[in-house]
Amino acid sequence: MSAAGADQTVDIAIVGGGLAGASLAVALAEAPLRLALIESAAPPAGQPAWDERCIALNDASRRIFEACGVWQALRGAAAPILATHISEQGRFGTARFAAADAGLEALGYNVPLRAIGAALLARLRAMPRLRLLQPARVEALDCAGDTVRLSVRTAGTVQVLAARLVAAADGADSSVRRLLGIGAERRDYGQQAIVSAVRLARPHRGVAYERFTPQGPVALIPKPGDTASLVWSVPQEQAARLLALDDAGYLAAVQQAFGGRLGNFLALGRRWAFPLARVMSERLVAPRVVLVGNAAQSLHPVAAQGFNLGLRDVAALAAQVSGAADPGDSGLLSAYESSRLHDRGRAGGLTDLMVRAFSNRVPGLAQGRHWGLVAVDLLSPLRESVLRQHLGHFGLPGGVAGYSAKVSS
Ligand SMILES: Cc1cc2nc3c(=O)[nH]c(=O)nc-3n(C[C@H](O)[C@H](O)[C@H](O)COP(=O)(O)OP(=O)(O)OC[C@H]3O[C@@H](n4cnc5c(N)ncnc54)[C@H](O)[C@@H]3O)c2cc1C
Question: What CA–CA distance (Å, rounded) separates 135 from 303?
Fold first, then answer.
């Protein structure tokens, strides 16, 4: 039955059907809950292409997707990351990690965004208790008593949804956060990430590279065959200049920054540019509202933590609300918030530290960075800690063992 004046009542309304929102709906597929997922953009079209955009998923994300029954559909499109190599241009200090160090087949996987979107959408369409509103936009929210009323605009009409919990997964500029007056700390890095793909002369052998240069970090992440994703984060003014270059000019510039360890780059794919900022919501919950993914925190891509962290938000929230009589219960939301503070603080802090340390030209800092990389490579406890952060194991609800059990059951 609908709450008074509402067109429909659900247990959880998820605002935003990007990676985090769609993953949350899928993670709740088996729960006895009525769900609505509201996404303002139409489903993306797109065919496989050698230069399509990818996202690096770590081991924790692979486990979460496996537990949700999504990984099986992604496995074929995913390129395994067998090792990582972190270095700074002009210095010999490096930090290296291999999957074997962690007793794993892979540290993570580089997966096309198109493939993740398609796998999630297929699962969403098969969920009988889910109402998928797309394209549809949440324009207003009103929390009264034990219900939140949402005004949802769909093709010229506005309908009212009543929900016991609203999960805001509406991105870094979250409209839910704004409508509720929740503040966010925003720091503009004054940089843009230029994302592209390259064909390689030498096999990458599953190794991902993070190379810090005076212009900014260049990440090369393996894709299937002899291709790789490239993410180069550079200051704004330099981004404008690099984006204006033709393909041959850009290829030469990025080759110079990355160096010759994989031979000459043979071809360049499409280029995309993203302005980079850190946005941290001041709170993760409000009465009958919870924030997940980029709506909760949006990070610099340097350590590929962003969606991996958001997916751990999703797993933690799903674990809290799946069996709850009232998913919007304030005690339950507080428990969710407490459970996420350490993981987001750690991932956000590490990412910010890397951006600042490697973009700062203060004399003496270069030596510190150099010995920092050497220490990470050689000192066991530090190495273990950085590796676990990389894998996402710190923030898995119930720990790795808990997730392995879920996966195999
Ligand atoms: C260059 C770059 C590289 C990256 N690489 C990695 C990586 O390798 N690994 C990694 O883990 N992370 C990576 N990230 C981070 C990752 O892309 C993000 O963390 C992730 O995409 C965020 O997903 P989200 O669903 O939280 O937010 P979004 O993708 O922003 O989705 C929000 C959705 O909400 C919808 N929406 C907004 N407002 C409303 C409304 N009012 N009503 C309805 N719908 C609404 C939007 O249409 C959108 O679809 C990278 C980021 C960048 C910029």
Answer: 32
